[in-house]
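Notebook, student rotation project (T.W.).
Task set for the rotation: take a protein with a known small-molecule partner, predict the structure of the complex, and write up what can be learned from the model alone. Partner molecule chosen: zinc ion. Sequence and SMILES entered below by T.W., checked by me.
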Amino acid sequence: MRRVPTVVIDPGHGGADPGAISQDGVYEKEIVLATSREFARALAARHTYRVVLTRSTDEFLPLRKRVACARACKADLFLSLHADTLPDPGVRGLSVFTLSAQASDREAAALALGENRADLVGGVKLSREPRDVGKILLDLTRRETSNLSITLARDLIAQLGREAVLLDRPQRSADFAVLTAPDIPSALVELGCLSNTAERRLLQQPAYQQRLARGLVRAIDMFFASHGSA
Ligand SMILES: [Zn+2]
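Predicted structure of the complex:
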């Protein structure tokens, strides 16, 4: 039987950490949890994925635990959902982040020192290999993951661009700790700007959350159809 891909959806923030807050008191943690639930529901309804949420309630979850959750359930793909505030209230739009190359080097270096190094590279027992071989294998895995993450980001922009306004240069990279699993294609979606009144109103609406969820589902389908044979 063909293995069903596991998609981990990570609603940002939660509990004591509200994330971004709009001027009129709308919390990022609530917007992203509601949208993540819609996304999880729509994705599960396809019956072609195993869907896991890192949190399904208003609880605090450290970044490391989110990555650990993805690795523990052998995720084929990891998506973290957020919404931000920008200094200019006139600016609105969605953007997608992948890990910047520098951050991914540093994280991988730290991980390589850990004792769980072996299970990072699909079943290859690195501990039995000479040191350099282990490092090369980890490096190859990381590079492949980075390429797949960029493909995933492109698919997300293509599909979400049909549902939402995009920021200028919507595809970006940054040092997000939550994107550092060396072996799981990962992206972080900033769904919109809570600092923009029109977009903040939209983000609160279930109908708009469902629209975003539909775009996210199409992007996941697109990713696995063309590149995601795990
Ligand atoms: Zn956030």
